[in-house]
Specification:
Order of helices and strands: HEEHEHHHEEHHE
Shape: globular
Largest sheet: 6 strands, mixed
Distance between the termini: 43 Å
Radius of gyration: 16 Å
Strand order of the largest sheet: 1-3-2-4-5-6
Structural class: alpha/beta
Strand content: 15-25%
C-alpha cells in the first residue's frame, strides 16, 4: 500500500526544509487541507485551478490531471528522502481523499482527483500569487511556485508561473508537465537559495522559443 505524507512525517506544521544538496528529484503529491503546504520537502509548487470542475470543463481538467499523473512520479516512489524532492501538489478536499488516491490505480485516479479537488488551497495560492502581482485573467490552471516557500503570501515574493490557459489537448499538457519537471523541478540552482531571476528568464525564453507562447512567467523581480 502506498503511504501518505501525513503518516510518514513529510507534512505537518508550517516549516519547510532547507535544501543544500546538489541533486533534486521531481515528485507529485495529493494533499488534503491539513497537509498543505507540505513540509520537509526541499520546495513545492501547486497546480491551481480557478474553479472546481463543471459539466462543461470536467473533461479538460481530467486530461490535465492525467498529464500530471503520467509525467511526474509519486513522492513515495522516488526512493529518496522528501528533503531531496521538489513536489508539485494537486490539492484535494480532505486527507481521506488523499489517502484514497494513494491506493487507487493510476488509471482511475483523475476522476476522483478532479471531483474532489481542493479549491480552498488553490484559491489561497491564487490569492497569494495575485498579491505578488500575478495577472490571472486567463482560464488556467496555473502551476505556481515560490522560493523560498516562506515568501508565499508576501507582496515582495517572486512567483514562478506556468500558465496553462491555452492548453487544450493531452499532448500539449504532457509536454508542459515534462518541461516543468526537467527545466524547473530538477534544477535546484534555480531555487535552492531563492529564485535565480536571471536563470529563470532564460528558462522562460526557452519555453517561448519552443512553443511560441508566453507560458512561463517570472513575477515580482
Amino acid at each position: 500500500m502506498t503511504s501518505h505524507p501525513s503518516t510518514t512525517g513529510a507534512t505537518g506544521g508550517t516549516a519547510t526544509a532547507s535544501y543544500t544538496g546538489s541533486e533534486i528529484y521531481a515528485s507529485r503529491l495529493f494533499a488534503g487541507p491539513d497537509d498543505y503546504p507540505p513540509t520537509n520537502f526541499a520546495a513545492y509548487g501547486i497546480l491551481a485551478f480557478k474553479s472546481r470542475a463543471s459539466h462543461f470543463d470536467r473533461d479538460r481538467q481530467v486530461m490535465i490531471c492525467e498529464a500530471y499523473v503520467n509525467s511526474i512520479r509519486p513522492f513515495d516512489q522516488i526512493g529518496k528522502p522528501v528533503a531531496e524532492q521538489m513536489a508539485t501538489v494537486w490539492p484535494v478536499a480532505s486527507r481521506e481523499t488523499a489517502l484514497l488516491l494513494s491506493k487507487t490505480p493510476e488509471r482511475q485516479t483523475c476522476g476522483i482527483a478532479v471531483d474532489q479537488y481542493g479549491s480552498l488551497a488553490a484559491d489561497k495560492a491564487l490569492r497569494d500569487a495575485v498579491a505578488a502581482g500575478v495577472d490571472l485573467d486567463g482560464l488556467g490552471p496555473y502551476l505556481l511556485a515560490w522560493s523560498p516557500p516562506r515568501k508565499k503570501g508576501q507582496p515582495d515574493a517572486i512567483v514562478l508561473v506556468a500558465d496553462l490557459s491555452d492548453v487544450k489537448d493531452y499532448e500539449t499538457a504532457l509536454s508542459v508537465m515534462f518541461s516543468w519537471v526537467e527545466d524547473i523541478e530538477r534544477d535546484p540552482k534555480l531555487w535552492s537559495n531563492g529564485w535565480s531571476v536571471e536563470a529563470l528568464r532564460l528558462k522562460a525564453q526557452k519555453w517561448f522559443d519552443r512553443r511560441g507562447a508566453q507560458l512561463l512567467l517570472v513575477i515580482g523581480d
